[in-house]
Every structure is written in C-alpha cells, then in structure tokens.
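Annex B.
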Amino acid sequence: MPTVEPTAEPTTEQATDRTAATAGLSERLRNLPDAYVLLPEYTWTEDDVFARDRAVVVGSGRFRWTGAAADLPDGYADLPTVDLAGHALTPGLVDCHQHLAQTLGRPYAFGEPSEIFKRVWVPLEGALTEDELAVSARLGLVDAMLGGFTTVADAGARVDHDLGILADEAEETGVRLVLGRICHDRGPGAGDGDRAVADAGEHLARFTGDRVRGSVAVATPEMAEPATLTRLAGLCREAGAVFQTHVNEHLAGVERTLLATGRRPLGVMEDAGAVGPWLLAAHATLLTPQEKLLLARSGAAWSYNPVASAWKGNVIADALSLLALGARTGLGTDGTRADGFRLMDAAETAQRFASAVEVGDPVAGGGTAWLRAATSAGADAVGLGDVTGTVGAGYRADFLVLDLATPDFIRPVDLAWELVRLGHRDQIRAVATDGAARVVDGVPLCLDHAALLDDAARASSDACQRAGL
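Amidohydrolase family protein: predicted structure tokens.
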C-alpha cells in the first residue's frame, strides 16, 4: 500500500515569525498615517481585473496613485509602506438597499410571507424612540462594515424623528451613507404633495457631502399621487440625487396597483415621468419583458436583492437579462444579513437556479459581473460612482484588505470567481473608509462592540414589545 510522506511541521521559529508578522500587520492597519503606500499581492483595478504586484498610494483620504509597484513615482518613495503579501485589495462593497430603522426587528424576519413590511416593519419603525433609532442604525452600520460594506443606501424610515440621528451614526462609524427620506402624500399620516416636495428639497439641501448624501424615497409608487411623483423625480433630476422606491416587488402590490390604476407599479412611475437616470428601483422582481427594456433603456439603476427574494419574495429577479440589456445593476441586502461575500454568492446562485441551469448556462454572470455589481456598479447605482467603489486615483480610499492565506484560496486562478464562490467575511483583515481603518481583524475600532450588542438586545426587546410583534 503506498505511503505518503507527511508534510513537515513548521518549526517553532517559523510559527513565531508568522504570528509576529500577522500581529505586526494588524498593528500597522490600526494606525495608518495620513499618507502611505499599500503593496497588495492582488488589486481589483479600474479595469475589473485582479492585477498582481501593484502599489496603491493613499493620502488625505483618497487614492492618489495606482500602478505597477516597480513604477511608483519618486515623489511617493519616502512614504510609509504596508506590505500586503498574501492579501488582496478591493474597493469597499456597496449595499444598494438597506433599512437601518429595521435592524432591531431581526428576530421577527423569518417565516413571513411577502409584504412583511405591513406586519413587522411599519409597526416597529413607528414604535422606535430616538435612542432606539440610533442604536438600530449603529448596529446596522457596524454589522455592514464587518461584512465588507463601506457604503450603505438607506431606503427611508417611517419615523417622526430627525434623520440627522442616522447621519450622526454614519459619521461616527465611518460608513458612507445615502440617506433616503420618505416623502408620501397618500396613506396613513401622509401630508399633502406640496409638503412632501418641500420636505424632499430641504432634505437634499441638508445632506450634500460625500460621507452622507441625501436621497428622496417613496416606499412604493402607490404611496404618492402621480403629480407628486413627477415633482419628486424632477427635484432629484435637478439636484443630481437618487430617487428610491420599491418597484414590482410582490405580487400583492402589483395587483393592488393594477386594480387601482390599471397600470403596474413601474408603469405608474413611467406615466409620471419618474423613470430615468435618477431612479434607484429596489427589487424589480416582477418585470415583464417590456418593463425590463424600459428600465434598461431609461438609464435607471436597480438593486438586485437576492437574499430578500429567498426569504420573503414571490420570485427571483431576472438579473441576467437586465445585465444583458445594460441596466445599471447593484446589489442590496434589504436588511437581511450583512455579509457582502454571501450576498455575491446568493446573487450568482439565485440566477443559476432561476434560469441558468435550465438553459445550460454554466457561467450565470460570472465572478466579475457580481464583484463589479458589489463595488463600482453599486456605487454608480446609489449616485456615488464618482466618489467610491473603485481603487483609482481621485476616488475616496474606501477599501478592504482580504487575507488569501486560507484553505479556500490555495492558488488563485480567477480570483473574482473565487471571491464570489468562496469568499467570506472572516477573510477581511481590514475595512477602511477615507483611508482610515474602521475594522481590523473583525473588531470595529469606533466603539465598544460588546456594549453595542448589549444595547441592541435591550432596545430590540423594548421596541418590538411596544410594536406588538
């Protein structure tokens, strides 16, 4: 019987050297200076490929230069360097559809049929105190960072509290936030159209920064009068802001709109002149062929939320067709779970089961498509394509350092595919925004994580009981 020679065990000295190197890198990542050079083994470039042996210069919160390490300009030669051998550098991930006011309701998010918002989310949001809203947002943002997200688009909260609470939490944690304000003039508690448009204008004027950017939101097209949809879309077009809404998500909602108007939800938006480059359509799971063409040709963006579809949807969105049509496509969690790698895996897997298997398509989009959707295309979808989502000169230095020395990555061949299929949040050595580390080795640097979990448990119990869940 053949024998296999056992692999030599590492010596004590070798093990000590590796431990010291790991500890040394962690310490350097925790204390990044204002300007420095990263030397990753692999870098996800502006061309949507992984390049080896690049140098990435960071200064004053931005990427200043990227290129072959051998070509590093003399002006950067004296900067401190961080050796990232055995690591990959990618842009921070973008969550294109989140609900930060719903984080405390996670224990009630399972086993529910469609339109869970009526039974769980609306009562919960209405029950939150200011302090509970702050804790909910803080928990959601920190969890997002732990999962690799450096940018989050919040779709709006049904609360009477000042949305500056969410903005403050984003500033504190370092997450880039697209902050939606719900502007309704139909349904319980809604004001008139003039008030909705005025509120939207004030919100967009208030939040104009790269860290917190204002956005207008209508929960569904049926929640606003057609004339109000027209005015809100015009406001967003003029301000260069994103107009968020849930479109064609659930069968019940589509049928309700058909019965009330004779049009499907996306058709209601089209009639109001509200479908265009400013639109960020969430879910878009129930689109006819004509609606897919409309969405793609209009220049609108959409958020593909595959985990949400699996948990409480009617059907999987036809993302492969929309990508083929050139639709601007990002990925969103919808507040399900904050792991960007599991989200990319779900995006590919859902398309495989929904359509690719039956037509003999072994690619189902490919690793590059889903990694792009989670980074540069996602940033474009939420209106920050010129700010983040790309490791390139001039962009904000929002990035992930990923450890490739794991059993999953024995020898990278197509690293994009491997990250989509095999990547996980445990690989994240560091999460940085504006060039500053926010998470290192799974530990958020901005707060006491254990205390946050305690605060969240208490706030969840109190708020959910008050909401009658």
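The chain has 16 helices and 17 strands. The chain has two domains: 12-92+390-441, 102-381. Further annotation is deferred to the next reporting cycle.
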